[in-house]
Please model this.
Amino acid sequence: MRKTVSVTPSARRLTNSLRDIGYSFESAIADLVDNSIAAGGSHIKIQIVFSGENSYVMISDNGDGMSPEDLNEAFRFGSQRTYQTGELGRYGLGLKTASLSQCRRLTVFTRDKRTGTRSANCLDLDFINETDNWLVTEPETDDRSKTVLDRLSPHGTVVLWDNLDRLLPSNNPSSPWAKRKFETLGSRLGTHLSTVFHRFLSGEGVSPIIISINGVDLKPWDPFVRAEPKTELVTTDKFELDTRNSSGQVVVKSYCLPSRSQFTSQEAFDAAAGIRKWNRQQGLYIYRANRLVQWGGWDSIRTLDEHTKLARVSLDFNTDLDDEFNINVAKMRVTLPSSLKKLMSRSIGDVCARADSRYRKDKNSRGSEQQASLDTATAPEGYAPGAEVGLALKSAAARSGNFSAFKKIAELLKQEDPKLAKLLGL
Model:
């Protein structure tokens, strides 16, 4: 029998290293929303409260809750629970790594739906740094803890972040600048969650949920604006990908969005631009178990192009294909299999050609309308547009003794707007 030696990692060093796994504030919250959905939560409430160094973020749900044993397991790095196909969890790290990327103290309160048992755990980086041990503690008994526990009726879970060293400046967490910065978190988060969970918010293929931030319910943002009459579904394809033990299906749908003039309103056109705005929002929208994990860009299949910005393509896969897509811990990035890229290339080419044609047609149409408007805008009633208007201006300038000034105006107009000068016959 081989000799073995236990090499348990340093709790102090590893927990601090895991803080930099790559979460943004928005993606960290999204990871906790995944947990709430997996627990059967239908209403997820997020509170972002500024109070200087006592500021906190709270995420609560009305899901199934956890038993004390399950809660302890949830605090294990790399928890031993198994995930079913279609479940949003993956590595057993999200609760800890997402939370500690933003705060130094994570507290979870929960009430089990089956037994009604309430329990709570706290993971405090300052305590771990002091002891260098993998230890969780009971949370301090304070007014806020009592209030949270009272909310767990009849069941559910509350996640509390405080000691927010990644969200507030350490030197002056109560400053007006810190407050302004903190108050922007809610609007950014709302835009992100409305995008990532738009299918869950609308109930598209899943049970509908409600997500609210500081009491305001989010509305879904559909990347493909399918409520617009002129949105066109160009292709639908289904591909089988082989895995080590079986195979899985990938569904690809390509959409050509309306051009600017085809939208029902300017507000709808502006809203469809998305977080990254029109040009960078074109491309692939990759869904894992109905949750959007990556969007924008063509993943080296083709390059971004102004003329194809109306092209957007959804790609759906389930959790049984996680290994093939190499999904990362933060569930923010995947790698497309090269074989799938080849299979998709034709449908992507088709939708991009359609988008290019629609964009150019709209641009030419709007250009013609602008020119026609210019032709008629300065024409007095009863006069032909263009050159005859210019002739009338010349005549009026000569008869009023201001022809020299008119010539200077004409020269300036030729330099600054040669098209208009030509239209007027100058």
Notes: Residues 11-217 form a domain with the Heat Shock Protein 90 fold (CATH 3.30.565.10). Residues 374-384 have pLDDT under 50 and may be disordered. The first helix runs from residue 11 to 18. The first strand starts at residue 43 and ends at 49.
